[in-house]
UniProtKB/TrEMBL annotation:
Its cofactor is [4Fe-4S] cluster. One of its GO terms (cellular component) is cytosol. One of its GO terms (molecular function) is metal ion binding. Binds 1 [4Fe-4S] cluster per subunit. It comes from Bacteroides coprosuis DSM 18011. Keywords: 4Fe-4S, Cytoplasm, Iron, Iron-sulfur, Metal-binding, Pyridine nucleotide biosynthesis, Transferase. Catalyzes the condensation of iminoaspartate with dihydroxyacetone phosphate to form quinolinate. This is Quinolinate synthase.
Length: 308
């Protein structure tokens, strides 16, 4: 392991590469990355780097976003199969039909989408800035929000909007068991329940705080409470535990106790060894069709401008 870490650091220097990692990555990938963050922070870092090569330890849409922002740079991903069930729940051709059927609507898409979906979008959002961006639009603006139904429904509830929602979902966040969380609350009555807005409404309604991964981390750091039940992908617990070693973080249990369903199987495809190989061989490389990229960059830049 130590040899691999040394080799990765040498290759990184030699190739002038930047390693970005999402909070849902394996701990060892978070630890070797130049920067660890949520979807918004990764896009922000990708938009301002002067590195020649960007390695995205995350899933495909994150690497695609980095490539769209940096068409002349090499963007690598340790495992090309690191996809996203939420992005897959929104095929670009079907979403375009939905958009065309509602021509008087502004189209907001979650960053967890393919470049093809972004190409027919007006503004991209992440879970960190979705409320801020929706609030920035006139109150009477008709809005389509896709693809995450739970996030869209949550944003409707906290903004008083009535956005038209695409019915997509993340297979990790939909899996958490309300009954098992309530049972845990009996064992840890002082624990605070933290939940990501991709979770179902029934879970959000029994949570104490709802926010993006970075918001959940910040809440855990600044709260006086010492125990947390965390309803999002369990990779975030690594940063929570690092930031607050004296506090207790309990991963929220999924409905099916026979699987590690609170881990994203796509995120976990990336490993230290695959990171080493991808830096060494400069493959798999993420490419985006130029005609699509030219359209997809606009709503991403619009998001970055609003989020500054
Ligand atoms: P954030 O990084 O915006 O919290 O989103 C979580 C997620 O599902 C990434 O795949
Ligand atoms: Fe996609 Fe869900 Fe995995 Fe995030 S956790 S990458 S939304 S499947």
């Amino acid at each position: 392991m130590n040899k691999l870490i040394t080799a990765i650091n040498e290759l990184k220097k030699e190739k002038k590469a930047l390693i970005l990692a999402h909070y849902y990555q394996r701990s060892e990938l978070q630890d070797i990355a130049d920067f660890v963050g949520d979807s918004l922070a990764l896009a922000q870092w990708a938009s301002k780097t002067d590195a020649d090569v960007i390695v995205m330890c995350g899933v495909h849409f994150m690497a695609e976003t980095a490539k769209i922002l940096n068409p002349s740079k090499t963007v690598l991903i340790p495992d090309m199969d690191a996809g996203c069930s939420l992005a897959d729940s929104c095929p670009a051709d079907k979403f375009e039909e939905f958009v065309n059927a509602h021509p008087d609507h502004t189209v907001i898409s979650y960053v967890n989408t393919s470049a093809g979906v972004k190409a027919v979008t007006d503004i991209v959002v992440t879970s960190t800035n979705a409320k801020q961006i929706v609030d920035s639009l006139p109150k009477d603006e008709k809005i389509i929000f896709g693809p995450d139904y739970n996030l869209g429904n949550y944003i409707n509830s906290i903004t008083g909007r009535n956005m038209l929602l695409w019915n997509g979902a993340c297979h990790v966040h939909e899996q958490f068991s309300v009954e098992k969380i309530l049972a845990l609350k009996k064992i840890y009555p002082n624990a605070i329940v933290l939940a990501h807005p991709e979770c179902k409404n029934t879970l959000l309604s029994i949570s104490d705080f709802v926010g993006s991964t970075s918001a959940l981390l910040k809440y855990a750091q600044t709260s006086d409470c010492n125990q947390f039940i965390v309803a999002t992908e369990s990779g975030i617990l690594h940063q929570m535990q690092k930031a607050c070693p004296e506090k207790t973080f309990i991963p929220a249990p999924p409905n099916d106790s026979t699987c590690a369903c609170n881990e994203c199987n796509f995120m976990r495809l990336n490993t230290l060894e695959k990171l080493y190989l991808c830096l060494k061989n400069e493959t798999p490389e993420v490419l985006v069709d130029e005609k699509i990229a030219v359209k997809a960059v606009k709503p991403i830049v619009r998001m970055l401008d609003i989020s500054e």
